[in-house]
Write a structure and sequence with these properties.
The structure holds two protein chains of two kinds. Chain A is of the alpha/beta class. Chain A has helices at residues 2-8, 28-38, 44-65, 82-87, 122-129, 143-148, 158-179, 198-209, 251-257, 279-290, 311-330, and strands spanning 89-92, 96-100, 103-106, 109-115, 138-141, 151-152, 183-187, 215-220, 239-242, 263-267, 298-301. In chain A, the strands form three sheets. In chain A, strands 5-7-8-9-10-11 form a six-stranded parallel sheet. Chain A is globular and about 55 Å long. Chain B is of the alpha/beta class. In chain B, helix 10 (247-254) links the parallel strand 8 (236-240) and strand 9. Chain B is globular and about 55 Å long. The chains are: A alpha/beta, B alpha/beta. Chain A binds chain B through residues 94-102, 104-105, 107, 109, 148-149, 151-154, 190, 193-194, 196, 222, and chain B through 12-16, 24, 27-28, 31, 71-72, 89, 91, 93-94, 96-100, 221, 269-271, 302-308.
């Protein structure tokens, strides 16, 4: 079904399409430049030039490795929620909250009506897509995660906040599609935190995507996936990207009981480990997925964004992933 | 009926203003070895006193030490025990807070009192107010740990943690703590383990001496376990009413054999509660409760920015005062 949708969208992807989850590590010069901007030691325009340089580096790297559906690498974003919260109307920066040890962050707070401020990701998508012939994914953070990772001072409850954010994110999606994006990833890593709220999380996703034509992927890491299965299948997206390659979940048993109805992106690289996987390990993980779903419905990617790894680790991990996929594409099913 | 305002546990140790970040700066200097252990402890003591006084100024009658010294709710109690090492970070429930997992490789044993000093520092600042020590319970500690050896399963590990915590409770009770709170947030995720948790509380209760024991649950719906919790060997039950809209109706129907700690103020969100949302719940449940009722945030306040944590406590105190006052009639 989704293969047909991809073809309708003009995307002719090989067996086991490869992609990445969104973020890549920022090169040292960019990390330093971001710190210098905070001290007003460089201009916003100078930083932007360096962000473009880093983005182009990652586009060329993905091309050289042979990745099929590219990302811009989010060199211009810090946190996946704060990026949107800092741009959207209705949000304030919020006070300092501890995340662990002596680490604190400004947790965003919804203090008024959420408001789309005009395109937030479109210029970057357009600029990146112009660098390559391969499709570049549009990358959004979903309404449920935006709500869950923010304080809500304004809306009467979590559902109202989530649905309001969905309404505004839809405008961003419309702008992305108008610019030409055909594959859009809407990340919902918070999706499994409160299983009883899955109903309105699904309703919110309908609010974002219904009637808008694209191939949709939702990345949902942070485990406990079994607590929202099979309800998770109600999400109106084509592909679920689940960080399950390392889990002990018995997928086969779960999928036998409640068949998996979407395409599945298999996270086969552990982004929290310095250890670079071998192509053999990656192949074993892909085969595990192929044991429970037809190969035509499987995509291959790392299990989360690679921003926590070094540039070299990321490149080597992706090279192992691509080597494994190339071998499996040539092998009989 | 006295409505006693109490805190539920943690309190933010820094504020947004630079002058409110002494703890953060000292922590960084301690990590770099630029200040001594003694100097670092002195800062922790000073911040403990500060957060105790801030809770009292906000209107809290029974403050906590704010758990200023705790790295997180799980590793703090485990890290000094025999056969425990500390592992990597893991997400703490559905918060954006992370705890370090204790790894247990052999029989647990306490080497020295863990919380006694914190209680003494807090109590000196709080006088004449009593201070309530707060511990994470044995079951939640076991759930948050990695079991590599020493015990056959997680249930045995929970019992072993109970033996250790019983020593803590005995020390705290002997030192004069009149109410000791034990948190079991993991229980709501695993209601099937309620018999195990109750059994561990028997071990704790046997050590409580003259102190009263409270069991607090949060981060989930306590309704399915309400009757079971009533059979725990404790004097006080703390309930998170923000997760469960039906819980207050159930309390109104079933009453309570225990003193309740009502978690009416959301310790997870910044929005401030009002009389319109809180008083109908009090109207519903108070007629079924005994002479003493605690009002508290739904959980520790470290998930909020400092200024908002204080505002939450001020709100709670104001609502408690207003409820007991003349506005009560006519509602």
């Amino acid at each position: 079904m989704s293969r047909a949708k991809l073809r309708d969208l003009g995307l002719d992807l090989p067996l086991l399409p490869t992609s990445t989850v969104g973020s890549f590590p920022k090169p040292d010069y960019l990390v330093e430049a971001r710190a210098r901007l905070g001290k007003n030691a460089i201009s916003r325009a100078e930083l932007s030039d360096l962000e473009k340089k880093a983005t182009e580096f990652w586009v060329r790297t993905q091309e050289e490795l042979g990745v099929d559906v590219l990302v811009d690498g989010e060199q211009y974003r810090g946190d996946m929620v704060a990026y949107f919260a800092e741009l959207m109307g209705g949000f304030a920066r919020g006070g300092l909250v501890r995340s662990y040890g002596n680490r604190y962050y400004h947790k965003p707070a919804i203090v008024g009506e959420a408001r789309w401020p005009g395109p937030m990701t479109v210029e970057w998508w357009r600029w990146t897509q112009a660098l390559t012939d391969r499709p570049v994914k549009g990358m959004l953070t979903g309404p449920y995660t935006l709500m869950d990772w923010s304080f809500n001072d304004h809306y009467p409850d979590r559902k109202a906040a989530c649905l309001a954010l969905a309404r505004e994110l839809r405008k961003e999606l419309e702008a992305l599609l108008e610019a030409g994006a055909k594959v859009v990833q809407i990340d919902e890593p918070a999706l499994s935190v409160r299983p009883d709220e899955l109903g309105f999380a699904v309703e919110a996703m309908h609010g974002v995507v219904d009637g808008l034509r694209a191939y949709y992927i939702t990345h949902a890491c942070f485990g406990a996936f079994e607590t929202i299965y099979p309800g998770l299948l109600d999400l109106p997206v084509d592909n679920l990207d689940l960080a399950i390659s390392h889990s002990a979940l018995d997928l086969l048993a779960m999928f036998e009981k409640d068949p998996f109805t979407k395409d599945l992106s298999l996270g086969v690289l552990d982004v929290h480990s310095h250890v670079v996987e071998s192509p053999e390990e990656v192949k074993a993980r892909i085969r595990r997925g192929a044991g429970v779903l037809p190969r035509e419905r499987i995509w291959v990617d790392p299990d989360c964004g690679l921003k926590t790894r070094t540039v070299e680790e990321s490149r080597r991990k992706l090279a192992a992933m691509m080597a494994a996929v190339r071998e499996l594409r040539g092998a009989p099913a | 009926m006295p409505l006693i305002v109490t805190n539920s546990g943690s309190y933010p140790r820094i504020g947004d203003a630079p002058e409110a970040q002494r703890h953060r700066r000292a922590y960084a200097r301690a990590e770099r070895g630029e200040i001594s252990e003694v100097e670092w402890r002195a800062v922790e003591d000073e911040v403990t006193r500060e957060v105790v006084l801030e809770q009292i100024a906000a209107g809290v009658e029974v403050p906590t030490d704010g758990q200023v010294r705790w790295y997180d709710p799980i590793s703090h109690l485990a890290r000094s025990l025999a056969h425990v090492t500390i592992n990597g970070l893991l997400r703490y429930f559905d918060t954006n807070f992370y705890f370090r997992q204790p790894v247990v490789s052999g029989p647990l044993a306490r080497r020295e009192p863990i919380l006694l000093r914190d209680l003494e520092v807090a109590r000196a600042a709080a006088a004449p107010h009593a201070v309530k020590p707060v511990l994470t319970g044995p079951y939640s500690l076991a759930q948050g740990s990695v079991l590599e050896g020493g015990y056959r399963d997680r249930a045995a590990l929970a019992h072993a943690y109970a033996e250790v915590l019983a020593q803590e409770i005995a020390d705290l009770a002997r030192a004069g703590a009149s109410l000791i709170q034990v948190d079991e947030p993991f229980l709501l995720q695993h209601p099937e383990d309620v018999d195990l948790v109750r059994a561990t509380f028997r071990v704790l209760a046997a050590a409580r001496g003259q102190a009263r024991l409270a069991c607090y649950t949060y981060f989930g719906d306590a309704l399915p376990l309400y009757q079971e919790l009533q059979t725990f060997p404790v004097e006080v039950l703390g309930l998170d009413l923000t997760y469960s809209p039906k819980l207050s109706r159930h309390i109104a129907e079933a009453g309570s054999d225990k003193v309740l700690g009502l978690g009416l103020v959301d310790g997870r969100n910044t929005k401030l509660e009002t009389a319109e949302t809180v008083y109908p719940v009090l109207d519903r449940v108070l007629p079924r409760l005994g002479e003493t009722v605690y009002l508290n945030p739904s959980c520790g306040l470290e998930f909020l920015p400092r200024a908002r944590a204080r505002a939450k406590l001020e709100t709670l105190a104001r609502l408690a005062r207003g409820y007991a006052g003349p506005q009560r009639s006519g509602r």
